[in-house]
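#dry-run=false #mode=assembly
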Amino acid sequence: MEAASQSTYIKRKRDGRIRIKSGNKAERVMQGTILSFIILTAIAFIIFDYSGLHLISAVQETMYNLYVMFLQPGLSHFGWGEALFQVSMTLGLAVLSTVFGAVIALFLALMAATNLSNKGLTKTVRIIVAFIRAVPTVLWVLIFAIAAGLGSEAAVLGMLFHSVAYLVKAFSEAFEEVDPGIIEALRATGSSWWHIVTHAVIPSTFTYLLSWTFLRFEINFTVAVAMGAAAGAGGIGFELFMASGFYFDLREVGFITYAILVVAILLEIISTQLKNRLFPAAATQ
Amino acid sequence: MKREKEMKRKRWQTTILLAVIIVVTYVSIAITEFNVLTGITAIPQAIGWMFSHLLITQESLAKLPSILEKLNETIFMSIAATTTAAAVSIFLGLMGSKTTRVSNVLSVLARFIASFSRNIPVVAWALILLLSFGQNSMTGYLALFVGTVGFLTRAFIESIDEVSGSAVEALTATGATYFQIVNKAVIPQSLPQMISWILFMIETNIRSATLVGILTGTGIGYIFDLYYKTMDYNTVALVTFTIVITVIAIEMASNYIRKVIL
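#status=ok
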């Protein structure tokens, strides 16, 4: 009895009370992270460049702008048909970069999955992918614009690069979760690497791949809007940029924003529905 | 027999799905006037161009101090936007979650705000705010802030729902007040998840901040745009390189934190 009480070490506070929370590493790191967030935010507000900012009038003006935008939307520089065409153009850019991206990513992910490929290849693919992902999409599009000229090719290729990098990470993680028993069983029957991939790995992860691809499509729509505005890639994003930056036509900005909002919400609903249908177990949890 | 039928149905579904994807792709090619040949040949062309033009030279290195200053602005902007948005999102998340909601009206309102601010792209927010806030850090900060609130609220609602069902029930049974339940059960249990989401959002925001910077004329995006338009590609390479280093460094730091806390 005595030995037991000696061997257990009880952490006490300075005033002798027993500590209820143990200060483990996870907690310390968490507290440190939160503390550094707060300090960095405080520094950020001090060093911000406030030149030319009149906060009160800016807030009032923004409120008025938002009021005009959202309550009196209208079109003045183009009609409904044109608006619909521009939205489908943006959707088209998103589709192309997602579909091509998914196909390329499928092959690269097979090379990047640790259970399907050798160590050297896995590492090389992963480093390249990490590098591609670190460069913002808009920079890729602008860089491709020099080589391919401004237009849909540069936009699709730039977005493609980023989609591939994103999907390779997601796909290879899905492949690595395939039951090793299945792969071992197929290997024991003498199947080739290609047989294992087409008959075990892809069928068992297909729904995951599909839902990741659709998620990327959702992201790519937003990215395509951004590319239209920042890199002149065309589509609804470009119209938005023109309406706000050149015509200062708030009602048109409002209309375009509504159009983007409707498509984005539709995509989100489809994505949730798809997820619920594909993974009914996860949805009921 | 039944199983065989099911497999047949599944095969049909896959075939139809693939057919739909091919048709949609074909339509997209037509609408965007995408030239597949140009697209394919542009890749080696672009990579060749990158290796011959995007080189960091001595001359461009002289501009490093001014680039780093702008990069600093961008990093701080994304961190400040993410943390302040997280503070708002915790509140909205508590309102929106099934287990901790106060009233149904507030819950619907919280979800509506989240969906609204999330689904309008950051670019649109940046352009709208630029009209009255002008070219300074506040514009970029606010644009990132609004988008982040939308995303983090959705993520926080999910983490709170996932984590705290039984704990909330247990504490309610002991007669704990709402504040005690939130403070002692909901927040501590979902905190690791939340920090993980915040770290993810900081990474994303640094990339978006570049884009917002191009539009609003602030931070690293502005510097990039400046040298890009004056065709000083050596400096463009240096700017890109500093962004890559920053993003990878932040990714590594957050991976470490995630590994420890989750």
